[in-house]
Structures are given as structure tokens and as C-alpha cells.
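Per your request, structure below.
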């Protein structure tokens, strides 16, 4: 029964998952979180999903492609269920603006880290041909790691 259509046009979990390109475990997980409504079940306990469930799952997957969290998607589903697109569209725009701002902050952080690594690479390169410093004794002034002791005070 898993992965086939029943006589009433309902989809089993396997068919819904295959059609959506996700695993059955993911479908079950979304159901546990309440993103998908509990499906009807056969007498033997198989889940049966409607076309509406499939559309809801596609909505969830599309929202995930935007980088939205499951909590954010839950809020979008609530707004979508109200049936008025304007609040939903406004909320999506707000979420996307926040995602863009988060990306900008992360990019700035990464650029700063890269710049720091480039400086440290230059420091490390200067000492490539110097004699060993006795790393096994872990001397404070070891030149093998281009980080100064004073920098550790800021960590």
C-alpha cells in the first residue's frame, strides 16, 4: 500500500513523499510539528493524504527554499489559512528583508574574518624558514601559530 494511490484518489505517505521529492520521515516530521494536518488513516493504519495536503506540503517546501525556519513557515501557514493574501505577502516580504539583513551581517563578519586570516597568513609565511621554536614545550612566544598572547585576552 505504501507509495500507491487508493480508490478514493488519496495518496499514501510514500506517494506524497515521492511526488514532493522528500522522504517519508520528513512528511512524518512535518506532521508531528503540526505543519501538516493529521491525515486520515486506513483500517490498517496507513496515512492517506489529500490533494490539499500535497499543496500544503508544496507551500512548506517553497518556503524552505527561501531559507525560512519551520517556525516562520508555521506562521505563514496560519496566515495562509486565513485566506487573505495581503497579510501573507507582507509577512513574507518582512521575513525576506530580515533574511537579507542577516546575510549582510554574516557577509561582513566573514569578510572581517577573511581579512584577519590574510594578516595571519602573512605572519605565518614570514616564519616558514626560521629555526624551530620548541613547540613541544608550548612556549608562549611560539611563532608557529600567528596569534599573539594579547589577542587571547579578547576572546
Amino acid at each position: 500500500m505504501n507509495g500507491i494511490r487508493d480508490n478514493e484518489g488519496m495518496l499514501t505517505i510514500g506517494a506524497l513523499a515521492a511526488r514532493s521529492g522528500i522522504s517519508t520521515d520528513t512528511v512524518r516530521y512535518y506532521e508531528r510539528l503540526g505543519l501538516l494536518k493529521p491525515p486520515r488513516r486506513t483500517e490498517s493504519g496507513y496515512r492517506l493524504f489529500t490533494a490539499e495536503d500535497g499543496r500544503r506540503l508544496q507551500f512548506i517546501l517553497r518556503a524552505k527554499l527561501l531559507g525560512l525556519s519551520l517556525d516562520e513557515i508555521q506562521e505563514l501557514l496560519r496566515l495562509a489559512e486565513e485566506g487573505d493574501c495581503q497579510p501573507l505577502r507582507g509577512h513574507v516580504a518582512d521575513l525576506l528583508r530580515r533574511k537579507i539583513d542577516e546575510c549582510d551581517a554574516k557577509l561582513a563578519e566573514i569578510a572581517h574574518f577573511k581579512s584577519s586570516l590574510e594578516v595571519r597568513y602573512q605572519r605565518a609565511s614570514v616564519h616558514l624558514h626560521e629555526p624551530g621554536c620548541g613547540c613541544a614545550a608550548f612556549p608562549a612566544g611560539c611563532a608557529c601559530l600567528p596569534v599573539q598572547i594579547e589577542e587571547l585576552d579578547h576572546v
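Residues 84-155 form one domain.

Regards,
D.
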